[in-house]
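Researcher: Sequence recovery benchmark, item below. Answer with residues only.
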């Protein structure tokens, strides 16, 4: 896929249109796709204890994907470390575990990771998603969730893509800050 020049300026006017990010999330995904190609884009908010994620916006048809996601230990640690890239994502034969190779922002080494398959993970794997790029979303200086880019290519993202993903997440953070109930 051809990539557009690295610029997130197009998101500002789009985010000013509404106070509910879910109303414009498919358009955010379409615009972000010009910079960072993806089949699905997911915005999930962390619970206060960091043990679960509540998907609040997901581009594309993922009906039947389930609701709240319990973070298995391996992914909870990855989320706590911040941004990460997962490649070669696969569901095992029993369909109860997912494996892949993970690399954290600021690193170039990949390591193998395996975790329990939550309904959303299973759903995306069955839809052909083979790689993820996840970056944190901040609100008033604290991590409140993550923005996850999903690709059907086994090596759909490069380490250099963290820069663009962080830039897009910063615009999404602005929209999260303006969600009803998040204003100061």
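Model:
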């Amino acid at each position: 896929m051809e990539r557009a020049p690295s610029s997130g300026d197009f998101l500002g006017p789009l985010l000013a249109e509404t106070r509910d990010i879910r109303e414009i999330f498919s358009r955010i995904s379409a615009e972000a796709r010009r910079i960072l190609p993806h089949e699905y884009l997911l915005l999930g908010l962390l619970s206060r204890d960091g043990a679960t994620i509540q998907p609040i916006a997901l581009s594309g048809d993922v009906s039947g994907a389930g609701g709240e996601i319990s973070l298995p230990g391996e992914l909870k640690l990855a989320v706590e470390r911040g941004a990460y890239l997962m490649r070669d994502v696969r569901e095992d034969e029993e369909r109860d575990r997912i494996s892949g190779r993970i690399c954290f922002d600021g690193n170039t080494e990949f390591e193998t990771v395996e975790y329990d398959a939550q309904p959303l993970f299973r759903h995306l794997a069955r839809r052909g998603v083979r790689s993820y790029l996840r970056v944190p979303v901040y609100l008033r200086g604290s991590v409140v969730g993550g923005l996850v880019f999903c690709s059907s290519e086994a090596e759909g993202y490069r380490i250099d893509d963290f820069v663009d993903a962080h830039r897009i997440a910063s615009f999404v953070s602005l929209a999260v800050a303006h969600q009803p109930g998040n204003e100061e």
